[in-house]
Amino acid sequence: MAVFTDGYFTMNEDEAIEFTKAKLGFFPADAELTCKEIGDGNLNYVFRVVDVNSGKSIIIKQAGPVARISDEFKLSPDRNRIESEILSLQDKLAPGFVPKMYHYDPIMNCCVMEDLSDHEIMRGALMKHKQFPLFADHISTFMAQTLLLTSDVAMGHKEKKELVKSFINPELCEISEDLVYTEPFYDCPRNDVFPGSRDFVREFIWEDRKLSLETAKLKFEFMANAQSLIHGDLHTGSIFIKEDSTKVIDPEFAFYGPAGYDVGNVVANLIFAYVNALFTGPSDQVEYLERTISEVIDLFKEKFLALWDENSVERTARYEGFREYYLDSILRDTAAVAGLELCRRIIGLAHVKDITSIEQPETRAMAEKICLTAGKEFILNRELFKTGGDFAKAIRQSAAVFSK
Amino acid sequence: MAVFTDGYFTMNEDEAIEFTKAKLGFFPADAELTCKEIGDGNLNYVFRVVDVNSGKSIIIKQAGPVARISDEFKLSPDRNRIESEILSLQDKLAPGFVPKMYHYDPIMNCCVMEDLSDHEIMRGALMKHKQFPLFADHISTFMAQTLLLTSDVAMGHKEKKELVKSFINPELCEISEDLVYTEPFYDCPRNDVFPGSRDFVREFIWEDRKLSLETAKLKFEFMANAQSLIHGDLHTGSIFIKEDSTKVIDPEFAFYGPAGYDVGNVVANLIFAYVNALFTGPSDQVEYLERTISEVIDLFKEKFLALWDENSVERTARYEGFREYYLDSILRDTAAVAGLELCRRIIGLAHVKDITSIEQPETRAMAEKICLTAGKEFILNRELFKTGGDFAKAIRQSAAVFSK
């Protein structure tokens, strides 16, 4: 029998069942538990524990001692404390859009949460050309509520500073600082560039001094701008979805950073799905994704401003023109981060299946060039993106350069 | 006999002597100690303990349970932990420009430090029209070293985030947020407006919607931009000076904020001395102060850039053009904060003697209008201030409007 109080160890499937019996009152006494490790992420082991009799199930997510993405990243397992706290907080701020949290265990560095096996990971679903007409509404609510309600606009400033303090997250931030803001923009050995795109990457990205200067500005803003409690990794692989439900998972990168970071990640990852659909999907999938990108932006703006009027506690937040100035700055950061994400997923260490699954090499290279062209445009001209239509237009124009 | 281990209480002079004997090995065994409470600040009790035999002396600074500035501000006595840690850190970053720290006592909430009684408070010295030719050199070194060396330019980003965390300072920041960024810019009951300036304040400051919008932007930057470990209250009342020595004291407002905040406070408080000298001093004092303001900016820039080249550890910090972009942003914040300080010391709760000591009411009103005119110019046109000469010119022009 494993003991769960003496110190941390990495569990196997049997030990995850023992842990469930020892620590949780979730299942009935006569439960017949089975367990499978289903993790395909990079940082954690994920166990699904099911009671064969009742059909009830839970997920146990345990931090490995070393991030699985690469042995070069050493991560403190404290990130699962951050994850359980933030899921509880997000569930209060935007109820219904994150999995329920049942238990957090600081010794085993794991948390136990709602099983979402009736949902599927959004990236895979989009690659199968499924459509989710409620997604733009759901994700814009989630982002407007979590981002506005944790900012100085809507929180007591002392209370907000205590939250900033408890979500300082040096190790996970370092991963983003390196993989998103730095390595993709020079010929870094850790990059992973598709041969068919290499010349284009060198000329169009690495040799552009104006572009690298902008990435430096953005990196320093990412490191210093404690604006909102952001998810920090809000791509379509961090979203569980089904027709009538959207659940945001994996908030272990959460910290106080620029609000536009989350919105930009959602936009960029919808663009990867859009580019995938351009070459592999029916034209109505392309239209659905373009419309969704546009709606995410416009609904986010609308909800953010409405929440501002209901929730602003800060006197100066009600000064004429400030609301619009503030929202503009979030849209500028949204464009910039969408651009960074579009570049880093093509050039850097961590790719996305939407693009790597395109088998024909010339087609894949074309898809990558569309992403990089849109990405650079978003970074360099980030001040100009104000509406969903502005974003959709930049994507269409980049696509038009390479596809016919 | 008082006991210093059971719990916090506010000491009197006799108890400060007992504390010295019980806790410190600083004085010889046969010392004959005398003590006087010499605090004139708002937040602390300050005891000077002297050995009549050896002439050796120390300062004990004890946090009162309530800030003395007003019963409305309730402050945690933890600020003296912050003070002792930051003085030790500043002494490493910029040796010789802060008092030596001998002891910190977490129960009594006090710290024991070097006695600087052979120095004088700079504000008073400038009002006596003394000149300190080394000041610009000293303070620019102090600021360049403390501000650059605690930033993401020159620190490991993980290490910097741990510092951000340990210097989160909600209560003292709230004072600045209220008294510097908010109350002076509307007709707040807590303001203290000189009758001869009231009409001007209403029309020129309170009724200017463009100005209030800019203060909102600046307030949100102050609350979110964790750029450098700043002193946070670097006015001429926080500087002990003598001909060959400059010591920065009272860092209890320290936290990670915009680097330009400290530089702007130094500039604004030199401007108060300049305006005082305009009406009460010899013309060479006016020239000395104008030259000093200009030198503080230009020497800060020069030293900051040199330190950047020697100490930058961040790859993107070396991208072409980034160093200049970053320094420009600090100068912009410097101008903005100088402007806020110029307004808030005239309109808000906490005034400066440089101005309030001007006895003739018309002259005082004129002095105040010069400060407010320069202040508004600095805030509205903050992007345009790039050199010491730019700052000096704005001051001269504001003075020329009202004095002849």
UniProtKB/TrEMBL annotation, chains A, B:
User: Could you tell me what this protein is called?
Assistant: S-methyl-5-thioribose kinase
Q: Return the broad EC class.
A: transferase
Lineage of this protein's species? Bacteria, Bacillati, Bacillota, Bacilli, Bacillales
Cite a single Pfam family from the UniProt record: APH
Q: To which protein family does this belong?
A: Belongs to the methylthioribose kinase family.
Gene Ontology process terms (BP): methionine biosynthetic process
Q: Which NCBIfam families does the record associate with it?
A: MTRK
UniProt GO molecular function: ATP binding; S-methyl-5-thioribose kinase activity
What Enzyme Commission number(s) appear in the record? Answer: 2.7.1.100
